[in-house]
Amino acid sequence: MDNVERHVDIDAPPERVWELLTRPGWFVNDGEIVAHEVEDLGEGAYLVTDPVHGSFRIEEVRLEPHTRAVFRWHRGTGPDDPATQVEFRLAERPGGVRLTVVESGLEALGVDRRLRQGQEQGWTEELEVARAHTDPARVRRAVHVPAGPDRAWDVVADLASWYAFGGAAYTLIEDAPMRLEWAEHGIFLGRVERVAAPSELAFRLAQEPDTEPGADAPLVRVTVRASGTGSLVTVEHTGLASEDEAAMERLGWEGGLTTLAERLRGQ
């Protein structure tokens, strides 16, 4: 067979999923969607650089808003490099959409049965990543940083330096109390849930300022793992009260991860 087809059901509106699908090369990553360097080459072609997998060329073939997006994915930076066609289809379903991907032209890459199975597994994983990234009721964001896990952990564990800009008081001990502050939002109380240096920090944070977090308070989990020549830092924030609150937290975490990456780049 010359193609791979996979699908996933996502509890999100088509407009939200479409926004991800039209990001050139979003599906090339190390298990989490990260910001790529993207150069617009004109006429629907882009040079995309992933921090782990390097540079490749993506060409828009057809975009039918909220229903179908087709790209040509070159395994190199030039228009003559071997390529496959990647087609995404969106179909509305109760509560969300079904996202289907079909990658065709694998024979041109010399893909044998074993490699094809790897491609099938890869798309299964990428669709799950897309589902997590577009879930409107939770936050899942990641950034690739140019530092090993030990160095990245030193900054991740210092929440005041990249997240709670008004100050943070806590100890890295499970069940320890936390106090995080923002000038524009106030003081939020939390509790450390898990510490596994240099790979994981989890804590619960009250949804209202100056209140103690309950047992079912929203959970923040920050993980660090080696990725390429650096590390991948992922934040997952679950248990939020509404989609509006998740949208606000999403903006906050995106800004925080940008600051984290800048610190680790020495900026």
From TrEMBL:
Limits of the Activator of Hsp90 ATPase homologue 1/2-like C-terminal domain: 11-127, 159-264
Pfam families xrefs: AHSA1 (PF08327)
Family under the similarity heading: Belongs to the AHA1 family.
Protein name: SRPBCC domain-containing protein
